Amino acid sequence: MSFVEVAIKVPLHRTFDYKIDEQQPPLTPGMRVTVSFGNQKKVAVVLALKNTTDVPDNKIKQIIEVIDDQPILSTQHLDLLKFTARYYCYPLGETIHIALPAALRQGQCADKTSISMVSLSEKGEKLPSLKAKTQLNLLKQLANSGKSSLTELKALGFTKKTIDSLVTKGLIEQSIEYDNQWQQVAPTIGTKPTLNKEQAVACTSINQSSGFNSFLLEGVTGSGKTEVYLQCLENVLQRGDQALVLVPEIGLTPQTVNRFRRRFPDTPIMLWHSALTDNERLQTWRFCEKGSCAIVIGTRSSIFLPFLKLGMIVVDEEHDSSFKQQDTLRYHARDLAAYRAYRHKIPLILGSATPAFETLHKALNNKYQLLSLTERAQTSTDNQFQLIDMKSQPDQAGIAHASLAFMRQHLARGKQVMVFLNRRGFAPTLICHECGWLSECSRCSTSATFHKAIGQMICHHCGEQNNVPHQCPDCGSTQIFPNGKGTEQIEEFLMTEFPETPISRIDRDSTRRKGSLEKALDDINQGGARLLVGTQMLAKGHHFADVSLVLILDVDSGLYSCDFRATEHLAQLVTQVAGRAGRSGEPGQVLLQTHFPEHPLLQDLVNNGYQDFARFALQERNDAELPPVTNMAIVRAEGHNIKQVVDFLTDLVPVQGVSGIQLLGPIPAPLERVAGKFRFQLHIQAHDRPLLHQYLAQMVDYLSTNKLAQKVRWSLDVDPIDMI
After folding, report:
1. When comparing pLDDT for 337 and 176, which is higher?
2. In b/e form, how buried is each residue of 46-79, taking b as 16+ CB within 10 angstroms?
3. Confidence of residue 543 (pLDDT cuts 50, 70, 90)
4. Pair 493, 457: CB distance under 8 Å
5. In angstroms, rounded to a whole number, what is the distance separating the alpha carbons of residues 680 and 329?
6. Which of 84, 180, 562, 588 is 20 to 30 A away from residue 55, measured at CA?
7. Residue-wise pLDDT tens digits, 183-200
């Protein structure tokens, strides 16, 4: 009798054995089967075939159905998922479930083998004047990208009705693609600039490497990192290999894919992000698997895509925190990219102007090869930084008079000005002028944010919404005022201060509608908006040629925090935001408003730049024995009963310490109460990573029989980047 070992989506750290019916089709690891689990039918993935099992004859069940005639997961892909489950201490069945597209994990057999592409017709290339602005915008998009899929156009906010109307007018054409013919011919290469010396050295180092190599491309903002990616990918495509390009945000994919399409006009390029439909995700999955797709540009979950012949992985803005999944399977796409490149024996490029300390630490210790780009591509002069001391400085809506004077100068020259504040809404809280009452969330240990435009108080942690009070709940006073500043308030003030200047606000509230972000960015690049107000959505990777001044408000909020990574994140954010200025050939100006202009972090950043700051801060981490010098994991627990939460974590602390393992806790989370639940943490550190994982594996095994684990909600975060 034969048996099969399968992984099932259940929160258990184990696999399961089933009997094989001799009448069923032959099985291979990576295929899907339907099995009975408890009282349910579940889709399972075959891991191995076995001749024996430890399950008694009277208890072992038989496979109900074989779904696939070929594996949907290769041996190499299964290896990636097994490694992911082991490393992040997460059940294998749930890991596989998360990695698969919805259609495949539900047992569907749909096989998407073609994709509908849209391009300009000969008539449309003349860009005729059209009354419908959306139709004209679509023609401009296609003129810019050369060719786009229906999926991309829908993600940009263009409707099927708009597309069909232009097809009817003969201005655009639809075609069905792809097959694997792109691998048989040399790729068409669009116009490309001449590399400077540093870019040329970087490309040569990457292109001449063989097998697995990790490269940290540390390039100042505007130094041409993307051009290095493109010229290295040219070699990959000429070999007929595929490539994966990871980007941190959905908002960056349209501009990235446009640039890639212009460079490789005949090369099949596809997208992967959360805005795709289930069918579109299945389609991309199948195209990668069959080799019909040459390049995928995707957000973090694209690291799990199958590739027929993967030749290179690029992680752009590798420092970005969005590459780390913060719930369920808490994986980091950058770190899995390193493991995957190692297993495929291919190069990995990690690009950033502000490398994560983990990445920089490896580069400085020769685990990664460091390639530096120190020259900006468009100008030979660096941006000019200036600290605006807010002590005794008059301000309006949080903007100093000195800052307003600089803004007027740049606007008078016809330039664009960006005002950055990483806080949406009108104000972080409301305050009673008579008794000091503050608007707090009833379920969290934090304030409720005032959103004036919709007349709501919203908690940004649990989502609780309430109407704005007209009287103080404590004393009945009507003297209730906004306390603090948000992007809504900044926009309202600037509209009054600069009534003739078009303003664009970009944050999560203003870009909720599909395609609204892309339309706003297009308006900015076309010169429509002259004043730009926004959160970090506005700061990440966007190229605004006319921005000559960047004003960063409330810098001080990142200087003092219980999170040891706060200064690193602040330095990265300031550097990235500052990089939006001075991209058109002349140096930009960057103003930082602070009450602590003498702070050593700000002085180091302003005078020496991120590279110098990061190396100094790494030494501080080393002295304090904090990551990346040591390895860390956090057990988080939450529940309505605070005693149960604390008892659960206390039970995990051994009476006698374990050699090489350091424990801290249980301690309250920095935000102790969220959505009515109390939150506590247990920090686990070790210099030796294998020892840490051995300890975590034993802990997870113990938790499977721990009764307190059933009474609280708990999670294990390996290599955490958010301490909150």
Report:
1. 337
2. bbeeeeebeeeeeeeeebbebbbeebbbeeebbe
3. confident
4. no
5. 20
6. 84
7. 777 888 888 999 999 999
Share the mean pLDDT of the chain: 89
What single DSSP character describes residue 656? S
* Separation between Cα atoms, residue 152 and residue 145, nearest integer Å: 11
Worst-scoring range by mean pLDDT, 88-97, 338-347, 361-370, 715-724? 715-724
Q: Up-side HSE of residue 579: CA atoms within 13 Å toward CB?
A: 28
- What are the strands of the beta sheet with 32-37, ordered from one edge? 16-19, 3-8, 40-50, 32-37, 65-66
pLDDT tens sequence across 113-130 = 556 678 888 888 877 778
User: In this predicted model, what pLDDT tens digit does every residue of 281-300 receive, in sequence order?
Assistant: 888 898 899 888 899 999 99
Assigned token pair, 205: 């180092």
Q: Is the pTM of this model over 0.85?
A: yes
Q: Among 1.10.3470, 1.10.357, 1.10.287, 1.10.10, what is the CATH number of 115-177?
A: 1.10.10
User: Which of 7-16, 99-108, 250-259, 554-563 is predicted least confidently?
Assistant: 250-259
Question: Which one has a higher pLDDT value, 493 or 176?
Answer: 493
Report residue 280 CA to chain centroid gap. Answer: 20
User: CA separation (Å) from 480 to 167, 429, 449, 469?
Assistant: 56, 10, 14, 8
Q: Is the dihedral of CA 391, 396, 397, 403 positive or negative?
A: negative
Closest of 592, 601, 575, 594 to residue 382, by C-alpha: 575
Distance of alpha carbon 351 from alpha carbon 229, whole angstroms: 9
Going from the C-alpha of 504 to that of each of 56, 93, 450, 488, 535, the distances in angstroms are: 68, 46, 20, 11, 12
Q: Which CATH class is domain 631-718?
A: alpha beta
What is the rounded CA–CA span in Å between residue 278 and residue 146?
Answer: 26
Across-strand partners of 370? 216
Joined together, the tokens standing for residue 675 give 């959505």
Q: How far apart are the first and last CA of the chain?
A: 53
Give all strands of the β-sheet with 456-458 in edge-to-edge order: 449-451, 456-458, 465-467
Contact 172/148 with Cβ under 8 angstroms? Answer: no
Structure tokens of 263? 């460079």
Q: 197-373 — its CATH code?
A: 3.40.50.300
Q: What is the Cα–Cα distance from 271 to 41, expressed in whole angstroms?
A: 33
Q: Which stretches does DSSP call E strand in 404-479? A: 416-420, 429-432, 449-451, 456-458, 465-467
Measured from the Cβ of residue 227, the count of other Cβ atoms closer than 10 Å reads 22
Residue 121, SS3 per DSSP: coil
What letter represents residue 221's amino acid?
Answer: T
Return the pLDDT at 710: 87
CATH of span 384-424+486-620 = 3.40.50.300
| Average pLDDT estimate for 392-419 | 92
Q: Is 158 helix (H, G, I), strand (E, B) or coil?
A: coil
Confidence of residue 523 (pLDDT cuts 50, 70, 90): confident
Cβ atoms of 419 and 412 closer than 8 Å: no
In sequence order, what are the residues at sequence separation of 6 or more whose Cβ sits closer than 8 angstroms to the Cβ of residue 698? none
Class of domain 3-105 (CATH, top level): alpha beta
pLDDT at 351 over 60: yes
Query: What distance in Å separates the CA atoms of residue 606 and residue 578, rounded to the nearest whole number?
Result: 11
Q: How far apart are CA 332 and CA 325, in angstroms?
A: 6
Q: How do the domains of the chain map onto residue ranges?
A: 3-105, 115-177, 197-373, 384-424+486-620, 631-718
What pLDDT is attached to residue 115? 63
Total count of residues recorded for the chain: 724
**Phi first, then psi: what are they for 152, rounded to 5°?**
-65, -45
Alpha helices in 146-216 (DSSP H): 150-155, 160-168, 197-207
CA–CA dist 222, 582 (Å, integer): 9
* Other residues' Cβ atoms within 10 Å of the Cβ of residue 604: 18
